[in-house]
Amino acid sequence: MRILEYTLGLPPFRRGGLPRYSTDLSEELAKNNKVYLMYPGQINPYSKKIELIKKNTKYSFETIEMKNPLPVSLGLGVRDEEYYMEKRNILVLKNFVEKIRPDVVHLHTLMGMPKEFLEYLKTKKIKIVYTTHDFYGLCPKMLSKDPKNELRNSECSYDCMLCKIGPSYRKIVIMQSHIYEKLKESRLIQKIRSKNKAKITRENNSIILDKDRAELRYKLRKYYLKMFNLIDEFHFNSTVSKEYVSRFLPNANGKVISITHKGLQDNRGLKAKISDKKIKFGYIGPYDEKKGFFLLCKLILKLRENYKNFEVHFYGDITDNSIFRKSWVINHRLLPNDCMYKAYKNIDILIMPSLWHETFGFSVLEALSYGDTCLVSKRVGAKDIVPNECIFDDKDELMEIMKSILANPTKLLEKYQKEVLKEKLPINFQSHVKLIYDTYYIK
Predict the structure, then answer these.
(1) Tens of pLDDT along 189-211?
(2) Which fold has domain 2-261+430-441?
(3) Would the pTM count as exceeding 0.90?
(4) Is it the case that residue 386 has pLDDT exceeding 70?
(5) Fold of 268-422
(6) In whole angstroms, how far apart are CA 66 and each of 48, 98, 130?
(7) What's the CA gap between 217 and 223, in Å, rounded?
(8) Could you tell me which of 216, 252, 328, 361 has the fewest CB atoms within 10 Å of its CB?
């Protein structure tokens, strides 16, 4: 079978579950199929003509950079909306499709992809599949009675990746350049990224925009909805993502299949027995509001007033915070994917206090595979694989669970560990890929 996968890019330049999953999926599929993986690359601001460049990589699938795509905002928000729905000359894409004749095109994001390409695929009757890694393109304001008026305000829900005023088009062009790709992990660029992230957060305090700008924002959301309506089947990676997408696309066709990635092993039996020791809570992810970072910081400060038998380990971001100066709080910053096992071995309890609807959450699956207890918000898609008593509705419920654990660590954590051992985790990656293949590619 000939399969075209479209993703944000390859690790380590692109981080997170989306690039990891799409890369692992492509590599496994390439064992028995002809697989092409395409991603949005460098932009020439003076050209609207798509170009395709074959890249030399270590992978067995063919890797293609799509040059001069639409801008990729990476969830930072959108400024200069007109550039995100510009028409592109897709002649090269058409020729590429005619050459490789794919049986299916599997999208892992809409970022960077011109709508004209999906329209062309429909005319050729080529199946389009979409995995719901995030909710980019879906703005809750479009469900209101007067979306254009609401779109004048830059504030939106935690789930919206469009309303926040993001980097300028000029900055996006730089961020998608090959030079930036090479320098991204340098200390200087990390320092600049940290400052820019903080600046974007400060600047997005209910900015009121004029009607013309609101009209542009409305057109962009309609643009994405048209793209979503061109998709044949959805791979919902959790019940959370299915329920959320169905609010916008009630007739969306698809199934819920939890995602996983290669290299996972079942290490639950190796977890050390719990004693009344110092409990190690862990947080993994960006240090931002929608992930519940600030909420968790407030909770642990309050918890510390009555309980001293715990410490908190943070992983996943380059930004700083005053709470890291506490002796019982340890900031590990970013760890490479192949070193994350150190985090799971180190902690006893992973906390996922997300305020937005998180489509899945690989860190939960990974932590469970090491026998860690995972306390997750009801908005986290990975709740599908977590015992019910470890799912909380709000900060008050989370606080009560944490208090109960600290009051009697041995009893409760041993109980939770037994529940974790009962769960059937989606760890076998080969079985998962076969299920995706059978469900979406050959039917």
Answers:
(1) 556 555 555 555 555 567 999 99
(2) Rossmann fold (3.40.50)
(3) yes
(4) yes
(5) Rossmann fold (3.40.50)
(6) 12, 16, 19
(7) 10
(8) 328
